[in-house]
Amino acid sequence: MAIRVSIIEDNLPFAKTLQKCLESSAASITVQAIYPTAELAVAELPTHQPDLAIVDLNLPGMSGIEFIARLKSQCPKVLYLVLTTYEESSLIFDALKAGACGYLLKRTPPSELISAIVQATEGGSPMSPQIARQVVNFFHKAPRNEKLECLTERELSVLDHLAQGAMYKEIADRLQISIDTVRTHLRKIYEKLHVHSRTEAVLKYLGR
Predict the structure, then answer these.
(1) Of 26, 31, 25, the residue nearest 3 (C-alpha)
(2) For residues 57 and 67, what is the distance between their CA atoms, to the nearest angstrom?
(3) CB-based burial of residue 38 (10 Å sphere; 0-12 exposed, 13-18 middle, 19+ buried)?
(4) How far apart are CA 67 and CA 80, in angstroms?
(5) How do 29-35 and 3-8 pair as beta strands?
(6) Is 98 in contact with 71 (CB distance < 8 Å)?
(7) Is residue 53 a contact partner of residue 59, using CB atoms and an 8 Å limit?
(8) Within a 10 A sphere around the Cβ of 119, how many other Cβ atoms?
(9) What 8-state DSSP symbol labels residue 176?
(10) Residue 20, SS3?
(11) Mean pLDDT, each 10-residue run in order, the chain (208 residues)
(12) Across 106-150, where does the E strand assignment appear?
């Protein structure tokens, strides 16, 4: 039987190209629908119940991660495969926690993407090599600085971007969160580290 796929992607030319690539493959894949927003997919996808949804993370309005978390409870039998340009570890783990079965980068060659879809429907968890390496490194990394043990993974990610000199808007864009959420994370970081400024927080993060 054909693998029924829905695509949640706001870049319609890319989505159409992806559809053509999938449907012309020898893997018997049918694209049921393309949704340019997560909101539209939330409203319509449960009616069609595809075998697998290919989900971009950077969507207008509701993010791909929010979409996966919401639909996972409504449509638990649907597989959710992330296809994005973002490689940040916080996004990878947030997507997997939300219910994604795999995480691929958009530069994945078409043949590998098709293989990943088949692999996912057979019970696998396909990931781009760069993503898999980050997951492995997460579990193999050296113990954290004890001063930072109180921070969550997302707070550490915000602090890491801060240490790289990123502005609030850049951090928000990279992590696909709002500027207000960035400020909320920073307020908690300051409280937990007992600091009062960006410089103090970064210095403590760098172990100085």
Answers:
(1) 31
(2) 9
(3) buried
(4) 10
(5) parallel
(6) no
(7) no
(8) 16
(9) T
(10) helix
(11) 95 96 90 96 94 96 93 93 90 88 93 93 88 72 64 87 81 88 92 84 74
(12) none
Instruction: Show the tokens assigned to 57.
Output: 């993370």
Give 104: exposed, middle or buried? Use CB within 10 Å, 0-12, 13-18, 19+: buried
Triad 44, 14, 105: Cα angle to 5°? 95
Whether the Cβ atoms of residue 127 and residue 88 lie closer than 8 Å to each other:
no
In the structure encoding, which two tokens stand for residue 176, read together?
Answer: 């696909």
Q: What angle do CA 141, 134, 157 make, to 5 degrees?
A: 75
What distance in Å separates the CA atoms of residue 169 and residue 122, rounded to the nearest whole number? 40
Helices (H), 24-88: 38-48, 64-74
**Do 114 and 85 meet the contact criterion of CB atoms below 8 Å apart?**
no
Reading the block at residue 37, the tokens are 């927003």
Tally of residues, the chain: 208
Structure letter (DSSP) for residue 172: H
Dihedral pair phi/psi, residue 34, rounded to 5°: -120, 125
